[in-house]
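User: Please predict structures.

Assistant: First:
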Amino acid sequence: TELQEIAPKEFEGRIKRQGVVNALDDEDFAAAVRETGRKKLIIAGVTNDVCTVYPTLTALQLGYDVQVVADAGGSPTKMADDIAIRRMENAGATITSTVQLLAELAENWTSERGGKIIPFVMGLMPQQ
């Protein structure tokens, strides 16, 4: 897979869970999140109306500050996607896009960090 090629060590260390709708209901996954010691989470999933919404709602209830990368996932319909995004936002999540998040992480395109991130941003921009 692409992730295995891009980040082989991280891919090998991923939490494998079977059929659990809410990732934070999986004890191995929840423990891995807790063990980071971080209180700010960035969440994205394959589908916003299942994979993203439930761990986001749980994380918010547990006191995490959550940013949801809404355009990194989708839902079977636009209505389902809109409802999931609205539900997460109403619960207190910050809704963002991939490029917004990368810009926030870069802080300054001329910095060392910004220089490392900008190729990803350029790869996401539509080609004319």
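Second:
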Amino acid sequence: MIELDKAGGVWTATLNRPEKANALTEAMLTRLAEIAEQAGQPGGARVLILTGAGKVFSAGADLDAMGEGLATSPVWERLSSAIAALPGLSIAALNGTVAGGAIGMALACDLRVAATGAEVFYPVMKRGFLPQPSDPARLSALIGPARAKLILLAGQRINTETALAWGLYDRIAEPGALMDAAHELAEPVLAATFEHAAAIKRLIP
């Protein structure tokens, strides 16, 4: 349910469970974490792109798996920590709505490119769970504490244009042009040496 393509220094990991809105299981999260960890090793990815198949990036945790403890599993933090630690560029290419715990991997990426119509919502208040530990701080750093509270406490669903205006998304593209937009952002990194790009990334808090 996770597909990995490696081409010219770009690793593309695709959530491929569209019949379930790419709802995440423990096995899927573990595989994504393994990919991110491998991408950060010497000779790994210059650029890591995360995207999804179908019309939804991810509905978050699989509801059946949540009842089995997935909501509090450490695998979420393992994944987001591995993405955040990458020396190369990480891009979330959000082909559709991103919800719940799936927001964590998008927040951990350096850049977020979204298809038109891609919404954001994180229904932790409704579900009775806490967000993943690193998510509130990353969310607040991007859009400010009040807007983070609108999403996490007030349960607001944020549309594409608002997410772009707030800085949660960095670019919007038509669905058919989403991956082109992601690859365009990756081009300067691929044209530079790995050491140069990684050194610049280390300078940015």
